[in-house]
Amino acid sequence: MFEQWVNSYDNYLLHKVVFYRAYSTVFNHTHLNPSVTILDVGCGTGEAVRFLRKKGFNGKFVGIDPSPEMIRLARLKEGERRKSSFLIAEAEALPFARSSFDCVISNFSIHHWWNPAEAIREIRRVLKPEGVFIIVDIRGNSLIGKIARNFERLMGSGFDYFECHQVEQLLTEGGFKNIRYLNTNTCFLSLVAS
Ligand SMILES: C[S@@+](CC[C@H](N)C(=O)[O-])C[C@H]1O[C@@H](n2cnc3c(N)ncnc32)[C@H](O)[C@@H]1O
Q1: What is the residue with the minimal CA distance to atom 8 of ligand 1?
Q2: What domain range includes position 58?
Q3: Does 41 sit in the ligand 1 pocket, CB within 6 Å?
Q4: Is the distance from the beta carbon of residue 25 to the nearest atom of ligand 1 less than 6 Å?
Q5: Closest C-alpha residue for ligand 1 atom 27
């Protein structure tokens, strides 16, 4: 579905107003250590890395997304100068060796994954033992969640949004031991797990 609206995707008000809040959450928890290596699962057009770069993050960044158009645009926007790479891949089959990343982030993507349990096991596998996973999405029962759910139904996508406890359960079953909530914003779920 993203192939159809990828070119106007970055201009949506939702992106600017809602998604940038999520990136701030990620920024506040990655502390801009230049040696940190970040994987963004469901990276879209790569807005998260652009946001992090503007804030001074200079580490290695890898984004994956199954949409070729999203990846094409992400590569175009980031250019050759940066220590970033973008690959076509799905969360459920990450093309990386065990313990490759210090940090995995995922913004507003989990509700699209066709097998979230498998995806979270994959994320645990590619994270270093002491690595952290920061996940953000719209919370299913919030006002925005209800609007987004109706929008998804209109689009015929069949996707639905999670509640915090459902993501917490997926994380626990996927092998994460320390799970905590990052903020109390009622529209979002944002959890950090290690
Ligand atoms: C709402 S967009 C969010 C994109 C990006 N994280 C951002 O902040 O703009 C959701 C993204 O999840 C991607 N996606 C869909 N299914 C996926 C899967 N199985 N694994 C990883 N990403 C997926 C979509 O292609 C899309 O780019």
Answers
A1: 107
A2: 2-193
A3: yes
A4: no
A5: 44
Residue 29 CA, ligand 1 centroid: distance in Å? 21
Quote the CA–CA distance of 57 and 34 in Å, as a whole number.
Answer: 6
What pTM value is reported for the model? Answer: 0.92
The rounded Å distance from CA 34 to ligand 1 centre is 25
pLDDT digits (tens, 9 = 90+) for 138-176: 899 888 888 888 888 888 877 789 999 999 999 999 999
Quick check: 9 pLDDT over 70?
no
CATH classification at residue 17: 3.40.50.150
Domain count, the chain: 1
Average pLDDT of the chain to the nearest whole number: 87
